[in-house]
Amino acid sequence: MSQPKRAPGGFPVVGVVGGGQLARMMQGPAVELGIQLTVLAETDTAAAALVVPSSPVGEHTDLDTVLAFARECDVVTFDHEHVPAHVLEALEDDGVTIHPTRAALHFAQDKLAMRERLSGLGIACPRWARATTAEEVTAFGDEIGWPVIAKTPRGGYDGKGVALAGSADDLADWIARIGEPGPLEGGLLLEEKVDFVRELAVLIARSPSGQAAAWPVVETVQTDGICTEVLAPAPGLDPHLASVATEAGLRIAGELGVTGVLAVEMFEVRGGSGEAAYVVNELAMRPHNSGHWSMDGAVTGQFEQHLRAVLDLPLGDPRPRAPWTVMANVLGGDLPEHEELYSAYRHIMARDPGAKVHVYGKGVRPGRKIGHVNVSATDLGAARERAGHAADYLRGVITE
Ligand SMILES: Nc1ncnc2c1ncn2[C@@H]1O[C@H](COP(=O)(O)OP(=O)(O)OP(=O)(O)O)[C@@H](O)[C@H]1O
Ligand SMILES: [Mg+2]
After folding, report:
1. Which of 29, 124, 190, 210 sits a CA distance of 20 to 30 A from 45?
2. How far is CA 291 from the centre of its chain?
3. Residue 104 bridge partners (DSSP)
4. pTM of the full predicted structure?
5. φ/ψ (deg, to 5) at 146
6. Cα(180)–Cα(186) distance, rounded to whole angstroms?
7. What domains can you pick out in the chain, each with its CATH number?
8. CB atoms within 10 A of CB 43
9. What is the pLDDT, as a whole number, of residue 83?
10. Which mutation among 164, 227, 282 tests ligand 1's pocket best, with the greatest number of atoms within 8 A of CB?
């Protein structure tokens, strides 16, 4: 396995398990700070492997591979939540410093565990239940009203592993798989279908010493279960809701002992007397799509902040640099794989010198996140139009 070359000056090596776009986007700030990144990548053409010189290829599920990788690092962090618990445990037993820790990560890996823990803390969640049989699904739906949302507790992303069920029959395939080793082993998570006003996200960074910093609460827009746009800060957000949602995020980070960046996905709802309120959807313990705006729109972006946090350095200022920053995701459209994206740059950059384009070096596939565009402005509508235009042009759905 290739080893990271240590730079002179006592700078640490941060290892990232997983070579996706999140690991890739840590490389920019790592270079600026002189911190050495090394990535355990899925393939030698993974998004991060293309930009991080030390990117050994290996399976994140294979204990020996991950251990050998981790022993070369001062601290290990993650691009995704899929490293198995037994691997995390072995790393900690071996004396490897990992952030977030296995104990914290458990609540981002398993949505049933997350629901139990947050409910125990009195944090507002959708009504939920664990179901292991069709009868339990039916009982839950009959009690809270159909349709209900069903989720695989583990392994979901981008809306995969989330289903809308009008009856237990809709979940027959999943129910049949309960008990098999896999994402349904502990049963299904059932939730009421929340009639939300919009989706919000609270992004927090917390260091092992307990320092925490919160970015402004943002609005996230999902299309077909995938985040397509983020508005920072969330427009027209009730100030009381902004403050209680941020407090909830900070409390979750503290109580769960999260280290690094924590994203708390929330639904904005109307409370009993019509007031704006939140319920928590799910947690991610790593830099998150809802924080990509901060790369250009905040004094400290989430990737730099994640590095600072996992190294237990003092955190950077999370305040916004502009009244509004809009992030538009670039999803692979109907373009053929390996489509030439670069040719779009001439038009995008000429049209809008203020648009900040980020591309992940990934092959184009429908629905796949291949990049994003950030635009900061004093006018929200203008920022949305400009970011959306650049993203649409890049993915080939508009030609002028
Ligand atoms: N209880 C619910 N009520 C209404 N809509 C929901 C509920 N749970 C999830 N959704 C919708 O489905 C989307 C995906 O759900 P969730 O965030 O749990 O899945 P995921 O696949 O883990 O997501 P991610 O894309 O964040 O990895 C949410 O953003 C929301 O739009
Ligand atoms: Mg989600």
Report:
1. 29
2. 8
3. none
4. 0.96
5. -90, 155
6. 9
7. 13-98 (3.40.50.20), 127-192 (3.30.1490.20), 198-394 (3.30.470.20)
8. 9
9. 97
10. 282
Structure tokens at 203: 């992004």
Best CA proximity match to 304, nearest among 388, 162, 296, 395: 296
Query: Which residue is it, tokens 């790592």?
Result: 30
Q: Which two tokens stand for residue 213?
A: 């910093």
Residue 88 makes CB contacts below 8 A (sequence gap 6+) with: 98, 101, 102, 105
**Any ligand 1 atom below 6 A from CB of 225:** yes
Residue whose CA is closest, atom 28 of ligand 1? Answer: 225
In single-letter form, the type of residue at position 160 comes to K
Sign of dihedral through CA atoms 282, 227, 217, 244? Answer: negative
Atom of ligand 1 nearest to the CA of 225: 13
Looking at 171-185, 334-348, 354-368, which range is the least confident one? 334-348
> What is the overall mean pLDDT for the chain?
95
CA of 14 to the centre of ligand 2 (A): 26
Contact assessment for residue 222 and residue 228, using Cβ atoms and an 8 Å cutoff: yes
Residue owning tokens 């600026």: 32
Burial of 176 (0-12, 13-18, 19+ CB in 10 A): exposed
The Cα–Cα gap between 284 and 307 comes to: 16
Enter the tokens of residue 30.
């790592």
